[in-house]
## 1
Amino acid sequence: MLQLRDIDAGYGSFQALFGISLEVNAGEAVGVIGPNGAGKTTLMRVISGLIRPVRGSMQMEGADLIATPAHRIVELGIAHVPENRRLFPRMTVEDNLRMGAFIPAARPKFRARLEFVYALFPRLSERRSQLAGTLSGGEQQMCAIGRALMSEPRLLLLDEPSAGLAPVIVQQVFGLVERIRASGLTVLIVEQNVRQVLRVVDRAYLLEAGTLRASGDAGALMQSETIREAYLGV
Amino acid sequence: MADIFDIYLLEALINGVLLGGVLALLALGLNLVFGVIDVVWICYAELIMLGMYGMFFLFHQYHVPFLLSAMICIAGVGVLGMVLHVVVIAPLLGAAPINQFLATGGVLFFLQSAATVMFGIDFRNLGIRLPVLAVSEMFISYARLLAFGVALAGMVVLYLFLARTYTGTAIRAIAQDRQIMPLMGVDARRIYLVTSAIGGALAGLAATLLVLQYDVHPFIGLTFGPTTFMICVLGGLGNMVGVFIASFVFAEIISVSGLYLDLEWGYVFAFGFFIAMMFVRPQGLLARRT
């Protein structure tokens, strides 16, 4: 579904990603784990077009992502839930969701998608006319995921969904990820919370200092010595 | 004696409300552009001046019916707004605010000078005088009532557009988080262009109303420009509700002070109030809590 080949990217003269090649197949949940500053967020922003790579190739279901303007990438079926959720704080929950359905293909289905998102997150339905900035952290994450789902994506990019949330809420957020998978979406998730994320994904890549150091099945990575020592603290 | 005085005060208050409606229309256009594009159109009132000349030439010189003239002016100034954006603003979007300020300030003098060269410095008007409504001892001009009503209607249409449409929602959203707009599938350049067209069209609408009350000349922008900026700053740049309230506060200060002293004193007090407020509430009347 999604293929990256030898991607180099960065900010100005600072290079953050070195020769990244990865693949996400339809129906999978794939994780990218690694420490703070490894380039995980940069990777997500490269895929959704916010940062253009300086080298390499990227394809989504055969379409060339590098030749596609950033605002067109969502039309190819990729929705990105950005780091720190980035809701529009002074707009209502429903207006935030409406923004998620901005692309022409999603507008006629707005009502149906809204029902789908409210069924997935009944809490959002209760809060529909509340300003997004007044929601709790967990509710904001639901709203951010809901907004991304409004465009009816086939691939969902989740950037640090557990960041800044209380432990009990983190559990709920990973529960959401499982529900989203169950609805048939392909998920690429970036996390520092290695233990939690390896429980919900099929496969994962380990990203350190801008390069992919390891990859494999979630179960195998959970058992690997490097990961156990560096990230699981055992 | 006391009774008559109260009637004058009431008349001043009513005229203040009527003035406030038009000022709100002016300020909302400028504020919308600032909130979305983060650039202040220093030359905003000069767009109104061009719109007023448009009305003068279409209606007075070429005898185009008033409503058609008005529609042409609104659309024409809307296009001017887009041209201003594409030619002057867009290339400077990444530049320092002071450069943007100087550039749109430059456009102000450019338009004033160009108007002087093209139209001369004569004061011109449409040659129509709307009647004055006399209610007991008060005199309320129809031109002001009409301007108030149309300005209010224009603001309601703007509100519905911003609240109900996808493009309007994107205009509100972009003012809150610019960077993630591509993730929503929004092309920020297109939203900027639409916003500039709306900002221009609001200036055009204001021109069609103001030309009924004021003679047009190349420097008429100075009559509205400074007041509009003060209202925007007082209300909080980017804050629609704050600006709406500030318009009426300003208009009442001008109108009521003008009753007791002269109209010029009204402006002195209004600007004095503005300077004092800058010390008390520099973020604007309804400062955002975040």
Note: The longest strand of chain A covers residues 14-24.
## 2
Amino acid sequence: MMRERIALPVIVVAGLALSFAIPAYGLVNKYQQMILMYVGINIILAVSLNLVNGYMGEFSLGSAGFMAVGAYTASVATVRLLPAACVHLGLDPAAALFWGFPLAVLAGGMMAALFGLLVAFPSFKTRGDYLALVTLAFLMIVKSAIENLDVIGGPRGFLGMKRLTTLPWVYAWTVLTLLVIRNFVYSRFGRGVLAVREDEIAAELTGVDTRRAKFLAFTLSAFFSGVAGGLFAHLLQFISPRVFDIIKSTDVLIMVYLGGIASIGGSVLGATLYTVLLEALRPSAVAWAFGWLPAALFEPLNTHVISHLNVWRMVIMPLLLVLVMLYRPRGIMGLRELRWLVPRRDRDALGKGLHPPCASPRLPGEPGGGVR
Amino acid sequence: MESRLVYALQQSLNALQLGSIYALIALGYTMVYGVLTMINFAHGDVFMVGAFLCFAAASLAGLPFVPTLLAAMLGAAVLGVAIERLAYRPLRNAPRVSAIITALGVGIFLENFLLALNPYPRSIPKLFGEGAWSAGGLSFSSLQILIVVVSLALMLLLDRLVHHTMLGTAMRAVSFDRAFVPLMGVPVDLVISATFAIGAGLAGAAGTLYAMAYPVIDPYMGIMVGWKAFIAAVIGGIGNIRGAMIGAFILGTTEIMVAAFLPSTYRDFVAFTFLLVLLVARPYGILGQPRIQKV
């Protein structure tokens, strides 16, 4: 019991130390560090989308829209507001940038949460596929609005961000996201969100405030998508409306459903697998992996197969996704959760090892349970 | 004043052309949804494959218009049935979202597979003499008339098929109750395959017509057009065939009119805001019925 109590904090702190050590001592190369940062950002995106799509059972396509709002807000804050503040308040620019960055990312998240309301209000009346369309419309509106706002670069995009996103920041935000969403899902409010998914009418009849549940889920999800956007913008150092198109949203959807919905562990796994596999299928990575082969074997393999992978990896990836869905329709984790991602209070009540995060293992739209 | 009216009428003709293409694609979304309650997100890419089949038939094989159209429709129909058989049928009893994500995967696969085979945008040869007439200040091109006539003919054919044949009755029966209808001797698998074949065939036709109207095609062209056709289907009330046609013409008209009378970069903004307002006002689309939920 004691060991379990301290295990998680120890792992979290060790991870933080590692995130400082990796860039400081060059434990892995710059390119691999960048992939690690993208993994973190994608975990934040997937977990926040999972809150709406997995736990609440809606189908949101709006991730990229919230990400765009967060990215633009945070970028405007560090590129325009901070330098102005330094001049007027006489701050040291380097220090202001260092301390201002988390605030800028936070501002990005809050602005995205505000936009989350735009989707939360229609969700009181509209459900299912129609709500999916509301989120899609939201994404298109955000993208189109940015294209028409010349102040922030319009269709040409926005640049001038310093590379402020570092491995420790990504790590810290990822852990914060996991912690907040985990605690939310297992709180009373989170139970309300699950109840909305299972049966909205029954939930309402038993006294669940379904509007509050939807409101909280959408704004919290939008907040963390916005945070991911802010981190993303300061890693890529260039954002344009075209970066945040529907393909970005479908990428996040794929991570969520590949890992398994209504499972934080699943989203972590899905985001990591998807990001790492796409990189691992690049010709340079595959050539490196097969470098031990004798040259007589390696050379033909390299010229005929590996060098073509840059195009074909985008063909292999969706095929893998389809295969996973065919053999594991509920995703890799399939409604189960990693034990340490469940608060201790619930952990013991639900038994050892993997377990479903809710009473009913049925998904919305899944056959079974009653005549309809 | 006179000239503005003529301009508006001219733009309505363009809206009719765009709307017919959206309608042909939207029908596939709505039919599959009606029968399986599944959103076939690979449908926009079937449309794209249709455009490439048009390119192959017209440019590589040198066929004239009618055989090109038929070849594209047939090829797309075969593709649609194959996708259903290989990727969706094994998931019929799985959660709905699994099939939707599989559909997304199939779509991405089609896009990148065509990109790998064919890395450059292609242009379609002219299959049709460029005739143009004008009447009362309005000008029609033969291509414009062809697109509208072919689309309307296909839509009428579909409407007859769904409402006046055995197959159509079976399709409506399956969409009414998929659990009970097989007990009455309806071959559900066959009906679903036929639905996919018809929907994909219409997308193939739309691909051909689109490629003729906008003759540069690339493997990613199906994404935006597909999403817009999906939106059209939902505006009309997804699952409702006449609704899909109405929704497509509304969307086509909105897009063209915004581009005609406002700066053209506002097109998506106004079109999607309009959609949002429409969905908030009528949460189940124009002809859609809310499903009554019994407790």
Note: DSSP finds ten helices and four strands in chain B.
